[in-house]
Amino acid sequence: MLKYTMKRLVLMIPVLLGVSFVVFLLMYISPGDPAKMILGEMAEAKEVEALRESLGLNAGFWERYLNYMKDIVLYGDLGISYATREPVLTEVMERFPITLRLASSGVLVSLCIGVPCGIIAATRQYSIFDHVATVLSLLGNSMPAFWMGILLILVFSVQLGWLPSSGYSSFSYMILPALTLGTSSAAVIMRMTRSSMLEVIRQDYIRTARSKGQKESVVIYFHALKNALIPVITAVGLQFGMLLGGSILTETIFSVPGIGKLMVDSIKNRNYPIVQGGVLILAVIFSFVNLAVDLLYAYVDPRIKSQYRGAKGTLKREKNEEEEEVQGCRKRRS
Amino acid sequence: MPEKKVVKGAGAPKSQAVSDAAGRTGHGAMNRAAGRSESNAANGTAGMAEPDDISMYKKQSQLVQAWGRLRKNRVAIAGMVILLVLMFCAVFAEQLAPYGYDDQDVMRRFTFPCREFPFGTDNLGRCIYSRILYGSRISLLIGFVATGMGAAAGTVLGAVAGYYGKGTDNMIMRFCDILQAIPSLLLAIAIAAALGSGLFNMMLAISIGAIPRYARTVRASILTVKEQEFIEAAHAIGAGDIRIIMKHIFPNCLAPIIVQVTLGVAGSIINAASLSFIGLGVQAPAAEWGSMLSAGRQYVRDYWFVVMFPGLAIMTTILSLNLFGDGLRDALDPKLK
Q: Rounded to the nearest 5°, which phi and psi values hold at B121?
């Protein structure tokens, strides 16, 4: 397992290098002269030129990229914000805990809604609850997050006056953003739980458990759920990435001062280093979350763990995914 | 859930599915793709035993069979009808809309929905109903064009990766890994921020994020088709790579691509609305649903209709695309869940 983890970490390096290149390229092509942006439009040409030189902006593309990478790797330096002249990393990391908390509460909401609804929908297939849950999940899936947020504000803060509509200071401020973030992934997780549960409860060992006289609730929650939740874990991991992206919108709607709000404000002020730094950091986090999910996946499902210890000892999970796609196609055809 | 409906509502598809699947792997592709003479040879077993089967098969192409299955799925048809209505609105927006999308009447700002303004007016006194009709043009255009560009690029990359394999495959798939390491909305935001706002830049930003999905789908289905005998046969008679990919392999990979595209359009429209919402999309005064929401957001305390109807428009579009896409997936690929 340790070997596998190491392997995965090593495999992540080229991907992250690629991501950094993409981010750098986007920064490179973005319009405007950084030196002018920092000094303001009124700055003298001499000053601008001096700053350009000191920022290394006069170098060629590859040299600049290498410098950019050197700064990141050696000093953790992502450039400086045009607006505040603070290092990008400091600014982004200040906001990071807020975004993380928001995304995690979004995941929590989606799990709290999605998993129980999925289980009930599966155990009472074709019941009224199943149909209602299915329709709601379709609606939830089709609802853009920002509209959902506005509707929640309309109902809970404007009409009912229960919850604050914007800002960030106490627990009650997190409820609406978390709900906004959580509902669309709750829909996905519910569908996932339902279908995987339906698959599991048709298996033999469930029939065995039932026929030996086990209580139905024990069968569902102890025997079936354990296996049914395995694919759900992957879905949650993927959703977490969606939530990191979605938090940009949610933070904008509710004025939560997270990375997303920072990035949107920076877009408006054409403060590109913050935007690119934010993208880079969120992409790194996303990659680590995916790795964590894969490891967790192996942890909860011993069958997968043994796969890693298999003959070759080091099966690449990423390769596996591609293989699985091919296998799936093959199965469908045969 | 639609997939259940298909299985429940139509007992027939199962048997159809089998014949369809059999047709697809072997002579299905042959009939359409390869020359007649080869197809006769390869049809051998299935063809000679039941001569009627061939004529039946010829009459009922895969698409016809899929349509038969789709037709029985009422939910999917409902989605399709809504989608067609939306397209109709988009095409005939000028005729249907009572006002232009930028006809301002400041004296009548924030009129509540009434006979004259079915969805009310916004902060500049523009008819929201007309703006939504015009907005459907932009949304559908972005949805289809951005998805089309992404799907085209992804299909080519996936086809090259799957067909040539080895180093090429590795390189392209690692490229996809990199794009997939950035959440799609985030990538679109980064690209749109770098390129600047505007319709085409927005479509480009959205389509790039969509590439890996198509590339992986196409690569996977090409890998399964590639090893089959009819490809070997095509090689043997001296067909070139391009011809084999375009005429023999591609038609066999069409079903998963079509499904992905339908569901992808929904994602593109949501992403486009999101970009507009944070101010990176289409610029004012053009009517775009996302920017209408974004502009109306500050007035929501007093005038609910300013955000209600654009949001409903987005949701209806996405819902119809999802329903239709799910149905299409079940119809084209009955074994896929």
A: -125, 160
